[in-house]
Amino acid sequence: MLGAIIHGFVLSFGLILAFGAQNIFLFNQGAAHKKLRHTMPSVVTASICDTILIVLAVLGVSLIVMTVPVFQIIFFAAGFLFLIYIGWSIWSSDPVEVNKQHGAMSAKKQILFAISVSLLNPHAVLDTVGVIGTNSLRYSATSELIGFTIACIVVSWVSFIGLAMIGKTIRTIDKEGKIVVLINKISAVIIWGVAIFLVYQLYLLIQ
User: Fold this and answer.
1) Boundaries of every domain in the chain
2) Contact residues for 113 (Cβ-Cβ < 8 A; gap 6+)
3) Mind telling me which Pfam families this protein's record contains (predicted)?
4) Best label site of 1, 124, 184, 203, fewest CB within 10 Å?
5) Could you tell me the pTM of the whole model?
């Protein structure tokens, strides 16, 4: 069982290191709020969504859904539109306004954004289904499967809190918002790159 837990920790940590739309959103929320507790709606929501995806992936439910072509097309199309939107939101965000607290999202908006960035983000979902779901197949013993699943979930929760904390720390250091501007521009380009890749995948699906 210990091996399964270590496997889950290492695997999930490796996935978290990929700075995708979900991570960028949580980081930006940390940078946008003066107090860490104000980012909790987005952190907790994203963590819950990740927990659901991990459980579904381990159970094999999400893998079955993602093998249906119609669902794949809808998912990729929605994901493309979502990534274009969030990329533009990050690119056009004003760090000066953020520092004045006007750029920080309300709790309700954080929750809605966190749900979309978690469940409509093909990169995050495919990682969960393709990587965590596939790796879980090696465990037949219930105890090992539970240990692997819990390890993956714990890494998600801790990492998301950590991302918000890092964002808040940079906000404290970067009084003028110059670092945040640079990070936002790079983040937006990365997100748009993923969106372009989705268009290519969508093209392959409808051929």
Assistant:
1) 2-206
2) 25, 42, 86, 105
3) LysE (PF01810)
4) 203
5) 0.74
